[in-house]
Amino acid sequence: MELSRLGFRSPEAAAARLAEIDGCPDDLVEQVAQVADPDTCLASLARIAEHIDGGAPALVALLSGDEELRLRLLVVLGTSEALGDFLARHPEYVTDLAEGELLTRPATIDEYRVWMRTATDADELRVQYHRALLRIAARDLTALTSFAESSGELADLAIATLDGALAIVQGEEEKSELTRLSIMAMGKTGGHELNYVSDVDVIFVYEAAEDADDNAALVVATRMASAVMRMCREHTPEGTIWEVDANLRPEGKNGPLVRSLGSHVAYYEKWASTWEFQALLKARYAAGDAELAQRYLDELEPMVWFASTRPNFVSDVRSMRKRVVDNIPHTERERQLKLGRGGLRDVEFAVQMLQLVHGRADPSVRDRTTVLALHALTEGGYVGRRDGAALEEAYEFLRTLEHRIQLFRLRRTHIVPEDSEDLRRIGRSMGYRQNPVDSLTKEWQAHRRVVSRLHEKLFYRPLLDAVASLPTEGLRLTQLAAEQRLAALGFADPAGAMKHIEALTSGVSRRAAIQQSLLPAMLSWFAESPDPDSGLLAFRSISEELGESHWYLRKLRDEGVAAEQLASLLSSSTYVTQLITRAPDVVALLGDDSELVPHDLDRLSTEMALAAKRHDVPDDAIKAIRRVRRRELARVSMADVLRMLDVVAVGEALTAINTATLQAALDVAMAAYEQQKGPVTVRMAVVLMGRLGGFEAGYGSDADVMFVHEPLEGAADSDATACATWVAQTLRQQLAVAGAEPPLQVDADLRPEGKNGPLVRSLASYAAYYAKWSDTWEAQALLRATAGVGDADLCRRYTELIDPLRYPEDGLSEREIREIRRIKARVDAERLPRGANPNTHLKLGRGGLADIEWTAQLLQLEHAGRLPSLRTTRTIAAIDAAAEEGLLEREDADTLIEAWTMVSRIRNGVVLMRAKGAESMVEANDDRARLAHLIGDGADRSEELVDQYRKITRQARKIVEKVFWE
């Protein structure tokens, strides 16, 4: 016989096995060749023949006399090496698969309880368990039972095994009469859908027997629970059963193993998290005191159905799902059958979320078993029939694949193997005879895609169908059910959300059809933010503005990234939403990351100048400049919210926008003077100060500037001053005009003599003032001065004028240092707003921006005269240079930079969130969640964000006290 032709991987080894099975007929060999793994099957047969009474002839005779027995045995041995090992140890149980012995239906839980109760010790329990497992596998692999029946039977066997183990333990425990102990099945065991190899999740509940001391009862109950767990997990020559996992109990592994019923109830009433109620969906009685178990269910089940009304219900469930995915080792993510994307957990989470939302009002959907719950949700109209059927098919395929993987060695695994021989065996066991590896892989990936797609549709698509005039695929989601689902998703105004959905999707127009296809995904993305209502409202407003524009609909429909980005922006940032609402065409920038790269100063200046030159009327020219500015602010802020820019890049980009705006506005104002007043008699420069001069502009920053002029040759000083003053005033008015959102407030209060001094000065006047009157604080302010707008030569000469002041060759005198510290102390004492918390004020608080910037500036004033590396207007660059020059410890410099970066990021984040400036860390929990979500830490980590902020600013303050205050 040509064994290689029959499909044996190792013909030589197969021939040797056949020699051990004396008298093996050819038709038996041909049947072996048809199983999933012929080599493993033949090896197991040879070992069974070696140990069975009567040897190989007896086995051959047995198989020849019972066709059903032979078929079942070969299929089992070709699929499971582990069950072959069991039969080699106990060949007497081969006849369990005989035609008259093996049930052709699933055994009931009561039959299993009787079966497992026959065991009188741990090893006998293991043997009886594996005998039952053999029978389940034989029925499963020969299609006598369906997947659902087999997984239910496995769960019943697990419960009966717990029952048998507890009976043995109670018989060995001298004081068992002191306590009533119940074992509650959880997870897949409780859900009547267990795998071949899985941890068996349980919760232990006890109650003291009548007249028994409670402490003594607890000790005994704990001892018995521990003994049950130990009996099931221990390895002996008869193998092991499985691990009993009690970590779903209150407080998890840190809580007591056994609790009283009253303690359980108190915990769930006060302390339980959303996921713990989700876990209780599967709870059912397993073993021990049945009456106590029923009271446990009666007390806790009602709480389950109100879990969806808890704050942040969906975000809690999603966060747990995300943590599960994040904890998968990177090398396993694409082959994780259970926890990976498009895997079993996606189906189970989707079904459980729908149960928790709708089960409160509809008891028909409360089934513990995933497939049966999906049936009920479909019949109840919460899931479309076609979607329900497709999801059930995918789930059954994935679970069957999981079973086949685990059966081979009876090991707990959810990883699809990479080895081609393993895949070939699994594929053949699932019926793929032609190209089993490729066929299995293709089918698996197809079902993963189905699960991923339907995971979204299950929760969001029915919301659209609920407002449609005709139900889809038998869907009957009522208005109330739809609003319940929206409330669970985090919408504060479900009825209002339904009206927005209806407005977007109603009718038979092309626009409505595209919106119907878009909204399930959009709603999903809105719901990921702490404020989905604002996202949906803004989406409706923008869609109504642009809905008939072909490019808008086409872009959102065809570019999934653009649609996802838009949803994220609208539900995260009021600032960005207002920009998009006023200029909806900026949506065209989404979907292509290159379009969200900020433009540099030269390009911005050119664009604004060209936009202004198209208009002869100054007001129209300014409006054109503001339109370009609005578009560029949208570009930067959208990139920021989408986490494409760090805070330094944002500061540089906003500085470039405002600098180009000032340059273009200056040109327009001078042209307006010429139109309205006559010839211009001055050259002008605008000196950028503060955060603008430091290239660190924020979304809420004013444009701090000083105006410098120089009379043209032959012009009178008075005429030149009047001209420069008119131009400066006009520029400020045009950029701050109401309705020019967001306006640019041009603040000139840092000029010599402040508000009391002239708005503009000539270069000569600045020189005279600095020579005679300039104070230390003005030299400090000039550290951030960048003469970057207007006449280039005038800018250069102004810079040459101020460099000796801000970078004094001899540093600072003790008197000047004391003066800076005195002013800083006065700022700390007087400028902090009344009622503001000094620990959380972003600018003036302890360790805030002012503390860090004044420290860097003091070092610059003291040392920049002799150390050119300190001559920079940028805060981070100055701190870095101070560390490189040995003026700061590197660790201290890194802490100051981290604190400055974090505070600046939060400051920008508050403006993005609210579209208005704020100087303090937000206090309300909802605002903190929104801020944490917006700046990338996640809404569920808002307290961590606050703790991190307080920690880093405390550390920065200690360094400021050491360096600035000495």
UniProtKB/TrEMBL annotation:
Uppermost EC category: transferase
Domain PII-uridylyltransferase/Glutamine-synthetase adenylyltransferase span(s) in chain numbering: 319-459, 824-963
Catalysed reactions listed for this entry: [glutamine synthetase]-O(4)-(5'-adenylyl)-L-tyrosine + phosphate = [glutamine synthetase]-L-tyrosine + ADP; [glutamine synthetase]-L-tyrosine + ATP = [glutamine synthetase]-O(4)-(5'-adenylyl)-L-tyrosine + diphosphate
Domain Glutamate-ammonia ligase adenylyltransferase repeated positions: 72-297, 564-794
Cofactor requirements of the protein: Mg(2+)
Signal peptide: none
Segments of this protein annotated with the region Adenylyl transferase: 471-966
Gene Ontology CC: cytosol
Gene Ontology MF term list: [glutamate-ammonia-ligase] adenylyltransferase activity; [glutamine synthetase]-adenylyl-L-tyrosine phosphorylase activity; ATP binding; magnesium ion binding
Region span, Adenylyl removase: 1-463
Keywords, in A-Z order: ATP-binding, Magnesium, Multifunctional enzyme, Nucleotide-binding, Nucleotidyltransferase, Transferase
InterPro entries tied to this protein: GlnE, GlnE_rpt_dom, NT_sf, PII_UdlTrfase/GS_AdlTrfase
EC number: 2.7.7.89, 2.7.7.42
Role summary: Involved in the regulation of glutamine synthetase GlnA, a key enzyme in the process to assimilate ammonia. When cellular nitrogen levels are high, the C-terminal adenylyl transferase (AT) inactivates GlnA by covalent transfer of an adenylyl group from ATP to specific tyrosine residue of GlnA, thus reducing its activity. Conversely, when nitrogen levels are low, the N-terminal adenylyl removase (AR) activates GlnA by removing the adenylyl group by phosphorolysis, increasing its activity.
Family: Belongs to the GlnE family.
Protein name: Bifunctional glutamine synthetase adenylyltransferase/adenylyl-removing enzyme
